[in-house]
Structure formats: structure tokens, C-alpha cells
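agent> Task received from the user: take the single chain below, predict its 3D structure, and emit C-alpha cells. No templates, no multimer pairing.
agent> Plan: (1) validate residues, (2) run structure prediction, (3) serialize to C-alpha cells, (4) report one or two observations.
agent> Step 1 OK, no nonstandard residues flagged.
tool_call: predict_structure(input=
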Amino acid sequence: MTDYNVLDILEREPVSNRLRNALNRAYQQGEMPFETLLEYSQTKEETIQRLHRLPNVGKKTINELIGLLDKYCQDLPGAISTISGELLIPDAFKSVSIVAFIRSTDCSVRLENALIGAIERNEFPAESLGDLEGKSVQALKSELHRVQNLGRKSVEEFLDLLNTISPESAEGLDSQTGDQAGGHPQSDKIDWAAHYLSLLEKERYGDITVEEIIRKMPGRSKNEDKLLKTLNRENAGIPLSQVLASSSGKLDEISTLLIADTKLTSELESILMDFYQFLFRKSNLKFNHEEYFLHDFSALNEKESKILLSRSGADKTTLEELGKEFGLTRERVRQIESKALKKYIKANRVGLLSLSEDIEKYVKATKGVLPVNVLKSLYGISKDKLEVVLNLVIPENDDSYLSRDGDYLVTSGFRECQEKVFGKIEASIYRQAGLGRKITLQSIEGVNSQILRYFLYFFNKKFSLNKDGEIALSINSASERARIVLAIAGQPIHTSEATRLYKTIFKMETTEHNLGSTFNRLPDALIVGPGTFALYSHLSLNIEDIERIKKEAFELIKNRGQYLSSRIIYEHVRRVCPDLPLRESYFNYYLVHGVLQDDGQYQIKKGFMVGLPSFGDHLSLESEIEGIVENHGPVTITEVIDLLRPTRGELTNGSVRNTLVCSDKIFLTSEQRKWDVAERVFNNASDIRKLKIAIRLAAYKEQVALSSVYNRIRSTGVDYGIGTILSVIWKDPETKRDGDYIGFFGADTELENYYETGEPRALAQLDYRHYSVERSIDTAILDSLVREFDLNV
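)
tool_result: status=success, residues=793
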């Protein structure tokens, strides 16, 4: 092999006088940056920069020299040798497919599309780099020139890429790994599979599977995503180290073993090669994020860089806006963005893998939560540049170690305990709020500031941090405020105490009625006593206990085929589940009613009545009592309660009494303390109106004792018992009672006209003033009836 002196080349070749004179002058003055062709080839980029600094040497002269020297460089040692005329492929790379090799390099899009397309269409005679071994350069050039859309520059580019895998570079790799690489006994060349295996063990990836490697790849393409679906399930969960250890070491054979779709083998090979390069760099070099961000956009031109950066992050520029800026259509901008992203991923995928690990390290250091702005400050880069990286290393909807939630990066480990951690923070805030204290980040102990700020971000509709550094409760939902009151109470609480706690926490007024109604609507709360509510978590009953209550209630209601009172259901559940009252002190019919009320399979009606949707309309207590009186009257209150007991359970005397007193269809009979329907109490319907008029006339515009009212009415000849008269008084809303006195001060046009004109004369028969006969009354009986049916009780 020959190494040429540059001056000798100039003497031999027909170069311009300008070039010859400039270089001779540079040699004479000692300014020539190189003397031989080998020196030029080894430091080509640096040499060209130094040529531009030579005096009196223009751009045309330098380009003439570069073109001449590059032609002679083909005779230097490498994978391609013009002297031997044959291609030399190192053993370590012979099993690598050409598709995987091209995708792992920073080649042009034209070369990648044209050559890979030809290989996939079987229009190129080689599939692996090993197939090129021993092929003459001229023969390879001829084959490449026949590839559709592959021009002269692309052919030269591919030949240059082959130079990057020279035997000398393989030997250098072999010297770095030594015997640990696992070389063949008969060869001094490296065993690629064994070296891959050693890197997996060294970098602690011995258990990583191919599926995990694919998921770890930043910026996966659609075809690479398809790999996850086409992996052989029986091999997908096997660590790559085991696959390599049991294979022949050929990458194409490994890919065929792992996936069934042969069209995607090149995609898998490319991923495995990228991961191999990542491990190799990791084992030899410490990742430097400054160096990464210095060169990450070097493969993109200015327009591509601007578009890619502008299209990243939450505040990304629209395609229309970028189109106006560059004078392009919306679709053309989208195409450039897609192309730029592919170029960025291709040029930086190995670096992105290292960067992903670097980001994971920072997030771990802050116990699983890290704001994006902190990462931006650590790397010292623009937000747009960081967004490009984060979009690739933390893809959306991916089950990976890191995930993103708005402005925060979160580890899967923190996600697992997030509910528990946030629950403790929330409880601490509510506890301090319940005591009326100021709440700050510092007042919440045992949690770092990053997690606390993420908590506030996560619950931004419930909490906020004001300018004074205090955590404020900003909850607009009445239901959520009510739930917080119960949570802070930590145990069953009466609405009277709950309203005071509500005011302390939220600095707002509310009523017991409003708060109780809201408690009733909460799915995780229930009534456990008169005006007393609790969260399910406050009870000693577990989920299984609650389900037992529902099950027993359902069976009872279904078998009865009618609405039942929660009292009846409670007695049944207590009888068949005797352990529940022993474990829960609040186990009563209120609690049972609360449980059933929260279950959608039941119909809840007024009066603690529970039924099933198939039962249809439900009779109210008023209607049911009216039906009992009509069918069984005259009846006493005790008899009514007995008749209601099978469906209503134990009702109080007061609830039945008030219903009887308020009903327009039921009146006390002459027989003491018995009730009957109006048709059987009065001779005819008009008697009710007559009796009401007589009562109003007896207490017109004055307060009159009940005994006197009775005497005045009886003096007119109205022959109804005192109980009947009292029941009419109670049912007349215009007649007002004050203790043992009543008075009529309401509006009654007929009476007013009678007092002024004496008309209609028929009312004179009901006017006590026209009668002098007084009838005595047993005041003891009157007092007894008033006390028994007193509506004020």
C-alpha cells in the first residue's frame, strides 16, 4: 500500500497554477497543515479548516485540492482497497444486515430510502455486510448504480460508510475488550454476540428482554411499534442475554428467532444495534449532556431546526403560523417537521438512550417527582429544546419507568404510592384547616417540596398557593366541601357541629339543613343517626359487611313484594347478622337506610320506605293511614300503629297523630279518641262547612277559651262531640291557637258581609249571639284531648 507526498501528487496531476503556487509557498513558509496523503485522511476535517486559514488560498483552490486528494485516498488501507480490488468486512460485522447498518449510521435520507427499498424488493444482491466480503469495488459500484434513485453521490457515500468498519477499527475494538469479549479460539477477531453479552452483564442489563429494549427506544417509528405485536410470545419474555448465549451470534438469525414477520427483521436488527452502541459507549465513556446538546441538531438545517423546535411543548406554534413565516403551505410544514424529527432521532438515538438514563437519575434523586423547569435549569438549555427530548424519551400512554404529568416528571414507583402520599398530605392540610391554623409548605412535615408542589399542581382545583406562601382551600363544589368536613371530623358528626366546623374551615356560613342535604348526596357518606352523618371509612364495617346488608335487604324486600320501612329491614338484618351490631356502635335503622339509599337498585321514598323499581308507585304514610281509617274506622291511634307495623315497623305516636290531625279526610268521632273518615263522622258534607263557620263566629276577631268556644257552638244546636269540634279547629289554618285560646282573625268574605249586613240570614242559625242557652262541658275531657292532640308537641 502506498502513501503519497502531496507535492508529488501535484507534480503528477494536471492541476491549476494557482493551486501549485499556493501550496509550494505554504511548504516553503512552513504553513502547510499536512505533508502526506495519510496525514490528510486521518485529520480531514481539521485539515480543511486549516487550509481555509492559509493566505492567498481561495475557496475554489481548496475545493480543487480536496477533490484531487479524495481520489487518491481510495488507495489507503480500509474496508475498500483499490490495490486489492476487494472488499474486506471484519468478522464482527459480517452477520449485520445492510438495512440495520444503514439505519445505525448518519447517512442521507436519499441513500437510506433507495438502498433499503431495493433490498426489501429483492433488487439488490446482498442482504448482510458479510455478503459484500470479497466483492470487487467496481462490481459493487456497478450493482449500486443499477439501484433505482441511487445517484453517484449516494454510491460514494455508501462506500465511505463501509470504510468506517475497517479491519483496523475492529482490531481496535478487540484490543479494548480483550479476552472478556469472548473471541473465537481460531480467530483474533471479536465475537460480536459474546461482546454484546459481556456489555449486558457489565452494565447490569443482564435481565432485560427484547420487548423491554424496544419499549426503551426513544422516538419509535410505527414499524418499530409493530414489533411489540409481532414478537414471538414464547421468546418475548426471555432476557436478551439468554438469546445471545444460545445463538450462533448472527444478528439476522437472532431477529428471525424473535419475530414471525420477516418484513420487520431489519427494524429489530436496527434496534438491537442501537442498544449495542449505547452499551458500548456507556461502558467506555461517561455521558456528557453538554456535549449532547451542543451537537444534537447538527444533522438538521436551519429551517428544519426552527420548525422542530417551534412544534414542541404545550405552547407550540401552529402549522399555519409557521407556513406564513416560511412562505410554505401547512402540509409542507408538516412534511418538514416529520422529516426533521426522523433525522433528529436517527442522529441521536444512542445519545437519547443515555439522556433518558440521565433524566431518570435526576428524578430518582428527588424521590420520584421532578419539575420540568428544574431539569431545564440543570441542563442549561431552552425549553423548546428540552421539550423535543422529553417528547421522545417519555412518550405519551407508554407503560415506562418515567411518565409526564404536565410540568412534572414522575416515576412509576411514585405512581404506585401516590394515592397514599397525597392522602397523607391532604389529611394534614384538612387537620390544620380544622384547627384554624395557617397552612404552608413548611407546616406539612415528612414530604419534600417537589412532591408538595406536584400535589398542589395535581389538585389545583382544590388547593392553591397564595403570594404569602399559604395553602388556601379553593373548593367551589358544595359536595366536596361537605366531604372535607366529614373527613376532618374523622368520626360521625351531627349537623350542628358540622356547620361550626364548616365555618372554621371555609370561612363561609351554611345551614344545618343545607349541609345535611349535601351529606345525603355524597356517595361515600351516609346517615347513621338523627341528623348525624359519617364517611364509610369512619365505620367499623368493611366492604363485605356493607354487601351483606344490601343482600339481606334485597331478599327481604323481594320476598315481601312491597315497600318496607328501614326499621323492618334493620330488624331483619340484625337478626340474621348478629355480629354487625357488636362491631359497629352506630348500627341502627338510620345506618341501614343510608347504605340502601346509596345503592341504585332500591327506590327510596319519604318516611324511610325502601322498595324496588318494579313495585311501581308508593303509598305515602298519609295515604296509607287514610286507607286504614277508611277500611277499619273508627280506630284509635294505637290501632293505626298496629296496622302499619308490618310495613312501617315501630312508628311513634306523634307521627301518626300529626298525620291524622292534618288530613282533610279524617276527623275525631263523638266517641272519644277514635278517628274515622268524614263521610261517617258527619251527617253530610255541608256539616263540615257549617261547623267551621260556627267555630269562626264563636271566636271572631277575639281570643276565646276553648271551653267557651265549645259552649257557644253547642248553644247553636250543633250536635257534634268535643273531639270532632277540636279536629275541625286543628284543620282550619285560618283559626289560630295560642295555648287554650283560639281566635279567628283571617279573611272570610261571607262572615265579613254577615257582620256588616246580616246577610246571608242562614248564618244567623250558627251565630251563638242569638242563643242564650249554655251547655256545660267537662273541662277535664277537653284538657285531655287538647294535650293528646296538641300539634305543638
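agent> Step 4: summary for the user.
Residues 26 and 32 are 5 Å apart (CA to CA).
agent> Done.
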